[in-house]
Amino acid sequence: MAVAGMIVLVAVSFVGYRYATDVEPQLVEARRLLVSRTAEFESPVPSRLVQRAEESLRTYLKRSGRSQNSAKLLLLICRWQSGTAQGASQELDQINLTECLTTELVSAAIAAFQASDFPTADRLITVALERQDTDRERTLRAAAVIRFDIGRREDVLAHCRELAALAPTDPRPWMLITSVFEGRGDWSSVVENYRQVLTRTAGEKLEERSIMIGFLLQSGNIEEARREFDALNKQAPEVAKALPLLHARLLFQEGRAAQALPYLSQALRDKPDDHEALFLKGRIQLERGEFAAAIKSLERVVELEPLNHESRYVLSQAYHRAGRKADGEKMLAAYHNIEVFKRRLYDLETMANSNPQDRQSRVELVKMFEEIGGQAKAEYWRRSLGQQGTGTTGAQR
Amino acid sequence: MNRFWPVMVAIAQCLAMNGCGPAPVPVPAPPPTGVSRAIEPALPKYPPEITELPHRKPRLTTMRAPTAGDWFGSPIAPAGVVYRDGNEQGFYTILESVGGGSALFDYDLDGDLDLFFPQGGTLSKPGVTIRGLPSKLLRNDGNYAFTDVTEMAGVGAADLYTHGCSVGDYDGDGFPDLFVTGYGGAHLFRNSQDGTFADVTAECGLACPMWNAGSVWADFDRDGTLDLFVTTYLDWKPDPAEICRNDALIRDDCGPNVYPGARDQMWRGRGDGTFEDVSKRCGVDIPGRGFGAAAVDLNADGWLDLYVVNDIQENFLFLGAADFQFTSVAHAWGVAASPTGNPQGSMGLDVGDFDGDGWPDLWYTNFTEEDNSLYRNVQGSSFVDATIRTQIAGKSWKWVGFGTVLEDFNHDGWLDIVIANGHVQYHSVKSLYFQPAQLFENQKGTQFREVTATGGPYFSVPHAGRGVASGDINDDGAVDLVISHQNDPAAVLPNQIPAEHWLRVQLVATKSAREAIGARVVMQAGDRKLVRWIRRAGGYLSACDPRIVFPLTDDKPASVTVHWPSGATETFTQLEQRTTHVLREGAGKTD
Fold this sequence. Notes:
The structure holds 2 protein chains of 2 kinds.
Chain A: H1 2-21, H2 25-34, H3 47-62, H4 68-82, H5 88-93, H6 102-114, H7 118-129, H8 136-149, H9 153-166, H10 172-184, H11 187-199, H12 206-218, H13 222-235, H14 237-241, H15 244-253, H16 257-270, H17 275-287, H18 291-304, H19 309-321, H20 325-354, H21 359-371, H22 375-385
Chain B: H1 5-15, H2 95-98, E1 103-105, E2 114-117, E3 121-124, E4 129-132, E5 136-142, E6 145-148, H3 150-153, E7 161-168, E8 177-183, E9 185-191, E10 197-199, H4 201-204, E11 212-218, E12 227-232, E13 244-245, E14 251-252, E15 262-263, E16 265-269, E17 275-277, H5 279-282, E18 287-288, E19 290-296, E20 305-310, E21 316-319, E22 327-328, E23 346-352, E24 361-366, E25 373-377, E26 383-385, E27 401-407, E28 416-421, E29 438-443, E30 447-450, E31 465-471, E32 480-485, E33 491-493, E34 502-508, E35 520-525, E36 528-533, E37 537-538, E38 542-543, E39 548-551, E40 558-563, E41 569-575, E42 580-584, E43 589-590
Parallel strand pairs in B: 34-42
Antiparallel strand pairs in B: 1-2, 2-5, 3-4, 5-6, 7-8, 8-9, 9-10, 11-12, 12-16, 13-14, 15-18, 16-17, 19-20, 20-21, 21-22, 23-24, 24-25, 25-26, 27-28, 28-29, 29-30, 31-32, 32-33, 34-39, 35-36, 35-40, 37-38, 40-41, 41-43
């Protein structure tokens, strides 16, 4: 603790010295306009302010001030903000980033991220992460968001854990950790981390509690889900009543399928094409031997969610049990194709996540998502692909 | 079906304030079980290796005191019986994770069940050198006392790293023979009728060079000779340079998902003491990662069917027919995977009529974060999930299920469930290596109520559980348990719920293979029909008591109807209580 305190003290003194000695008004003005406004992931700085900052910086650079590297980096922020930052990464090579303030690096990383220059954003935040100074919390916050969006999930976990230690009452790092585990389908970790969110959320947290009930069901913790649902129902019956699908899921998991049906009907009245409600209804109908009804529900799910392998599997059972063998086999074949496809996707994502240097998996992921029209996801992995060879990760330090 | 994903995206955006770019991708498939083999990056980002294995760490081993209401008394540890997996060398191989089972069989025909235990092996350098340890055969001396007769009996071969065992009288001489599986081989020990065994593997033509795990004897082609089905686990060879990591990226033993499966084998008994490999002809040689297998007539067509559970991949259901013509129907019948089509990490398996409708249902254990699976037989036409309806769902989510049996432990005529749990990963941060066993009481076929707390002292501490075998070791009409563990002594759990009225039957077939494996036995108990099947294999790599105990509601003699594998049906009447009746095919009344 004493060592950490010393580090912080030295860092604070250093930053203070830099500000105190760097009195050039143009640079101060540019920092005020750019850095303070990109402190978080806010809206872009208004163009007139960017123009003003740019003019100040160009004046400063002509006068050969001491903080040339800072000024050049701030100028790049202007260009990212105004959408004219082609070739920015080459220009960045000319800047000695160790001479720049951490706050400038973080702002530049955010600006690059907002301009969709993800490799540069990651490069800048990597340099910022190497420092332990007063801007640490902001650096980690930016790093977590940037790396979440480029698929470096182990790094996100490391950043969020460090952030949680620095800001122990903030629920947001725990939300992001939960999100990482949810993406992995690791439900016990989802529950464990979402508990941290709940303890850090003020007020009645009714929405958060209903989310938690869903997580508890996913993690097989049915008894606790029942306790939580009953408590929610007691405290805010109108909220519980507005969650018919959640209630149906709970009843189904409790082995009370017949009681779940009215709640499913309610959910489907509100949202006739709720694929999850239809799927659950189809499963219950199949279990009750109502094959025609089950087929109708499940066929609708397949229409709504063509890449959902689970509905195809259950529909194939329904066809078989209804005596429609050929349809059953056909649906089973479709299930298999999707299941194999998704399994490959999962394996690739696992490999890509466990190794930021794994280019081959990322290339294949982009291709596979493009094949099925998943453009956003293809773009996600393309961005991640752009991070290859950008240096060490925050988690490694 | 990830309905909370949008919420989490909102969270990410919340953190990002006005976050840019599309939302991150949810993982599209459920996580595979086991440990992934991570590609080692050049960068040293992984946490340091934990050198201390779970067995060397302090842990809870002091069991609570027994109480009068316990189902099972204090466990008895037969001297010198410890399954060794060789983990102490720190190779972290997947071989260490499989464990072993046990067999309950009366090898000397003195009327009581003796115990056999494969004992695993050791791993050492150079490279990863695999060696076997001698198995153990214990003679039952009564009152849960045993004598080690391994050496005298000649079943202590140490040339095989062993896992499972099964019992079948393959030569029909009335003396049960023993089949032992292991990594890279198997042994068939013929009972020489004098308390000794002879290794006849080679002369019988049984060539099993793969990694053999489960095995089941049955007369599949109804020619009067036992056939043998052997599950193989993986196509794996040790590699000392291989490093695997768990979810927390800590070095851990390797999981099955990174190795290809291997083809199971079906051996037809020729009737002359030799076997022929008919795997390909009968269509069961699909690459799988097989553990448990059960042979029972699931659709009542008179031919034994075969259900095989696989680790991290779909299970197999083969419907039997004449001349080994099996048809694969696991998908169509709804038992290939979870109820929503997700393959599971399945280990232990048993078959029984849990709901009293007279049809054999399927029950198997799965990996952590998966429910164990109970499938109800819909009158021989298909199966429907009963895990949720019977309220088993969620009860074992935290644990890795291995050995399990469906048995009536409390003599109410309804099949209860016991599960031996234990992780395969040493350093998992989510689920402990040592895990509690679980006991579930059948509530008249509608639900299972967890009664682990009253299971007895054994259930009060965690174990690294693997094989489970059930049988009435002290012949008191109450089914006892034998549970094997990783690197800890095996445990015999004496059932202490007194059985007042009961009878036991042992079948001797004359028109099909002698032990009548797969025979359907029915007893009318008041207004209920109790239906059981002769199913020697069970519990995970184990062999259970071949006899069937029926609870009775009063002290009168009872009748039993046997549906023999040959197709004949006979009724045996006036069976006295509290004794074992040997029912010979042809000696009963035909309808």
